[in-house]
Amino acid sequence: IESERKAETHTKKVADRKTANKTFQSLVKQFLNSLKQEIDEINQTISNQEWEKCQKLIHNIKGRGGSFGFPQLTKYAAELESLIKNQQYDELKTQFIQFEEYCRTSLNND
């Protein structure tokens, strides 16, 4: 009976992991799908010089990138956030173009 319980427990754990993995994959896909819209919104905040809003958007991408296993995305977003904090807006515009290109080519979710 004990071995049957262990087998049932093991089977349940495997099933739970598979479900969790599918849920995580779904969340990653949602994140990647929303990224294009967020990049467009950041572009707009840069054009409008809405630096506080821009920083918040980039900060959110930075955090979620780390949570979903995209360390390079997090690194780029941290660099952009630092540029805003240091009021280096011209450099921000230049670096954001590279960030946008990275997202388009490396994180393409089609």
Features:
single chain; 110 residues; 4 helices; mainly alpha
How is this structure best described in words?
The protein has 110 residues and is an all-alpha fold. Helix content is 87%, strand content 0%. It has four helices and no strands. It has helices at residues 2-47, 51-67, 71-85, 89-106. Helix 1 (2-47) runs antiparallel to helix 2 and helix 1 (2-47) packs across helix 4 (89-106). The N and C termini lie far apart (49 Å).
- Total helices: the number is 4
Instruction: State the order of secondary-structure elements, H for helix, E for strand.
Output: HHHH
Question: What does the overall shape look like?
Answer: elongated
How large a portion of the residues is in β-strands, by DSSP E? under 5%
Topology overview:
Blueprint: H1 2-47, H2 51-67, H3 71-85, H4 89-106
Question: Quick gist of this model?
Answer:
Helices cover 87% and strands 0% of the residues. With 110 residues, the chain is mainly alpha-helical.
